Amino acid sequence: MGEIVLAAKMTHVPTMLMSEQDGPVHGKRQPAIDGHREIARRAKALGADTVVICDTHWVINAGFHINANTRFEGLFTSNEFPQFIQNLAYAYDGNPDLGDAIAAEATARGAYTLAHHLDSLELEYGTLVPMRFMAREHEMKVVSIAAWATVHSHDESRIVGEAIRAAVEASDSKVLLVASGSLSHKIWPNKDYAANNGTFTISSEFNRQMDLRVLDLWQNGDHATFLKMLGEYAQHCCGEGSMHDTAMLYGALGWDRYSARCEVVSPYFPSSGTGQTNVIFPVQ
After folding, report:
1. Can you tell me the distance from the alpha carbon of 130 to that of 144, in angstroms, rounded to the nearest whole number?
2. Domain limits of the chain?
3. What is the pTM of this model?
4. Using CA atoms, how far apart are residues 272 and 282, in angstroms rounded to an integer?
5. Integer distance in angstroms from the first to the last C-alpha of the chain?
6. Is the pLDDT of residue 53 over 90?
7. 170-204 burial string, b = 16+ CB within 10 Å, else e?
8. Contacts (Cβ under 8 Å, ≥6 apart) of 112
9. Is 3-281 a CATH 3.40.830.10 domain?
10. Are 283 and 16 in contact (CB under 8 A)?
């Protein structure tokens, strides 16, 4: 019988890659990189063989979608930030049986979901950035789930999360579940970016205060309160992908029955106006 052995909310900012290159960002994102590697080390210690990543950089407009290919390999250049992520080489095995099972389970529960086995369907950088650093500590198979859901409700994403858990538990896989996205996500307006040292600052003090409050709730295990504010938080603080990754995460963990105290493994930091961190959600 399979199980989700660990869950996490993880940043995927492109400046993590730039942090390892010469230039003004060199070394600046080391705490975030260290957080990715720590999460992978813990997943390895718990026997994880697969990572399921709910990716807020994969935009979808109908249904839910899973990249369940057998193998992912290629060079990735971001069409959003080609100056930040270019020619990123990647090579990971997939877990197609698990991806197919999640899609079937979600569809049966009322959230129509398709799993795809297409070499031309690339992974997005919400998957590739965490994998770049986690793979240094532990090799895992990859299943990527689209979580930039434009015409979907959080209730539907909750169903997808519940399906993830059910499918995992019916499998022989041990899984690290990742919600890949930011907290607040109001990127600086282009004309204001340089004047505000945008790479290293947040665009809204209100958003920063809300992010810090959310982290307090998570660390205190008050997830029921957080879920009551999830919709408005995602709306007013411009949650990345409307925070469907987070709704999927909570669906898999038991929604408002979940009460574990979370652990912040990378200190909260601003990036291009947004709020970022890495947080472990222990599985109950």
Report:
1. 12
2. 3-281
3. 0.98
4. 29
5. 16
6. yes
7. ebebbbbbbbbbbbbbbebeeeebeeeebbeebbb
8. 63, 64, 106
9. yes
10. no
